[in-house]
Automatic annotation (TrEMBL):
Binding site for a 1,2-diacyl-sn-glycero-3-phospho-(1'-sn-glycerol): 148
Function: Catalyzes the transfer of the diacylglyceryl group from phosphatidylglycerol to the sulfhydryl group of the N-terminal cysteine of a prolipoprotein, the first step in the formation of mature lipoproteins.
Species whose genome carries this gene: Persicitalea jodogahamensis
Enzyme Commission designation: 2.5.1.145
Protein name: Phosphatidylglycerol--prolipoprotein diacylglyceryl transferase
């Protein structure tokens, strides 16, 4: 019977040596998994566009919008929510490498804003905001699974000390390597992967008759309700959270869950037929 799991995986896959004054460059598991989420997601969205008769020439633009919105939103969100003093003390840190610090709540805001801008000129093709976000949340769930597994490979965002038999000792993280801890990253990764299959199955069943806002609502409630609970098992990311009744991730998850509940209720009131939906949604 397991008493704990020794996690001593290097976050680096391999290093490309210096060549002609460039490098060396290290390829890391986190970066590979982050990119894989977008690449696989692009193929899934292509499948969805084909099934629903949307213009395939928009896929590349949509992918670029998602990459930019995710990275910018996550980056700005990290400093806004966790290190706001950096905006005054050292704003260049926000835009310069190594780009340490990404916040999922910031990514959510960035994605919603980016997709709203993308859909403004594509109403005539049926790519309305809720139509698109209902499908994009499927890919967000998959990307979330990849990214949280990348956090595990980085031995970061670790859980609290535990005596459960599957507790991880994070040997690569010297600050937290003394005792077994909850693999909180793995919990979220598995949860997002399950959500991906649930949402994809719902879309596959209803396709064009999917109630507008339903998939987005389910995704928001699932992801951020689980995030709220999982935070009880995590170490706080920044010191000021130690003085709060809930940590920052929990406070930010509450409005996301409430928005998700609203969208689910709204979608059930409007029914499954797109022609009954407001054309601006």
């Amino acid at each position: 019977m397991l008493t704990y799991i020794t996690w001593n995986v290097s976050p680096d896959i391999f290093t490309i040596p210096e060549f002609m004054g460039f490098g060396p460059f290290t390829i890391r598991w986190y970066g590979l998994l982050f990119a894989a989420g977008f690449l696989i997601g692009q193929q899934i969205m292509t499948h969805i566009f084909k099934k629903e008769g949307k213009p395939l020439e928009d896929i590349d633009t949509l992918t670029l919008v998602m990459v930019a919105a995710t990275v910018l939103g996550a980056r700005l969100g990290h400093f806004l929510f966790y290190e706001p003093e950096v905006f005054i003390k050292n704003p260049l840190e926000i835009i310069l490498p190594p780009f340490a610090g990404l916040a999922s709540h910031g990514a959510l805001i960035g994605i919603l804003l980016g997709l709203w801008l993308y859909t403004r000129k594509r109403q005539s093709t049926g790519q309305t905001f809720l139509w698109l976000t209902d499908r994009m949340i499927i890919l967000v769930a998959l990307a979330g699974a990849f990214i949280r597994f990348g956090n595990l490979m980085n031995s970061e965002i670790v859980g609290k000390v535990t005596d459960v038999p599957w507790g991880f000792i994070f040997m690569q993280n010297t600050e937290y390597s003394q005792y077994p801890r909850h693999p909180a990253q793995l919990y979220e990764s598995i949860s997002c992967l399950i959500l991906f299959f649930v949402l994809f199955a719902l879309w596959n069943k209803y396709k064009t008759t999917t109630p507008r806002g339903l998939l987005l609502g389910v995704g928001l409630v699932w992801i951020f309700a689980f995030r709220f609970m999982d935070e009880f098992l995590k170490e706080n990311q920044v010191n000021f959270e130690d003085t709060l009744p809930l940590n920052m991730g929990q406070f930010l998850s509450i409005p996301a869950v409430l928005l998700g509940i609203y969208l689910i209720v709204r979608s059930q009131r409007n029914g499954r037929h797109p022609e009954r939906q407001p054309t601006t949604a």
